[in-house]
Write a structure and sequence with these properties.
Blueprint: E1 6-9, H1 15-27, E2 30-35, H2 44-47, E3 52-56, E4 71-76, H3 92-119, E5 123-128, H4 141-161, E6 166-171, H5 179-186, H6 197-211, H7 217-229, E7 236-237, H8 241-252, H9 255-267
Parallel strand pairs: 1-2, 1-4, 2-3, 4-5, 5-6, 6-7
Helix pairs in contact: 1-7, 3-4
Length: 268
């Protein structure tokens, strides 16, 4: 597709969303960078090499936001994460909280965007999920389940929206240099639960090692923009070496083979 028309990016106050908003503006889109608190993005228009404005959008209550005319791209990036606990210790409120933003908010925002994309003659819905859904990662059940739900939504939308020229792109990041990644390393609270401590400690060590190989958000954003603009691109993409490598391994191995290999490392 041509880099023209309007692109709406959710969760654009920081991290991947902020970088993608700036990258799409530089490519030629008129970007609407949305976030719960527009004050967090006050400097974005001055940083942009192109057209960008900031707007308020809380994806858990998107009714006050009007999808702009000329919409060609929706980037569903807004998401939340909560402390990582053993499944049996995870309160139901964590499930409700994460699904409210990561799944229901994304679904409602997308529902509102589809008529605008159709009226523009087509475009792209880009959903940011996680490469963690490809692996049996302990203590991430809630986060992974929310992202897997989005992945399933994307598969269905790929079929439903194809007749209208609307493509679906799923981005599956690995370790990107964001606040969310930094915070998640400190929230591996599973170490506080004795039966799970050995596994949790290995997880902490593994995340620390992965943290030494993070990808800058600007690099990830360039890969995401490339996927959005490529009409021949597949559904799923990485945006960093680790995420892309995991996706490639998943494509070339059976689920059971990949799971057994990863479990062997996680169980020690």
């Amino acid at each position: 597709m041509q880099a023209e028309g309007v692109a709406v990016v959710t969760g654009a106050s920081r991290g991947i969303g902020r970088a993608v908003a700036l990258e799409l503006a530089a490519r030629g889109f008129e970007v609407v960078a949305t976030m719960r608190d527009p004050r967090a993005g006050a400097s974005l228009p001055d940083e942009a090499r192109g057209t960008l404005r900031v707007a308020r959008l809380d994806v858990t209550a998107p009714g006050a936001f009007a999808m702009p005319d000329g919409l060609r791209v929706l980037v569903n990036n807004a998401a939340v994460e909560r402390p990582h606990l053993p499944f049996e210790e995870t309160p139901l409120e964590y499930w409700r909280d994460m699904f409210e933003t990561n799944v229901f908010g994304l679904a409602e925002t997308t529902r509102l965007a589809i008529p605008a994309l159709r009226a523009s003659g087509g475009g792209v819905v880009c959903n940011v999920t996680s490469s963690s859904i490809l692996a049996p990662v302990p203590f991430y059940a809630v986060y992974r389940a929310s992202k897997a739900a989005v992945s399933a939504i994307g598969e269905t939308l790929r079929a439903e929206l194809a007749p209208f020229g609307i493509r679906i792109v799923e981005i599956m990041p690995g370790p990107i240099d964001t606040d969310m990644l930094a915070n998640s390393a400190h929230e591996m609270l599973a170490v506080n639960y004795e039966p799970y401590r050995p596994m949790a400690e290995r997880m902490v060590q593994g995340r620390a090692a992965a943290g030494e190989h993070t990808t800058p958000t600007a690099d990830a954003a360039r890969a995401i923009a490339d996927a959005i603009l490529d009409d021949e691109a597949p559904l799923r993409h990485g945006c960093d070496p680790m995420g892309s490598g995991l996706l490639d391994a998943w494509r070339h191995a059976s689920d059971e083979q990949m799971m057994r290999t990863m479990l062997a490392g996680m169980l020690g």
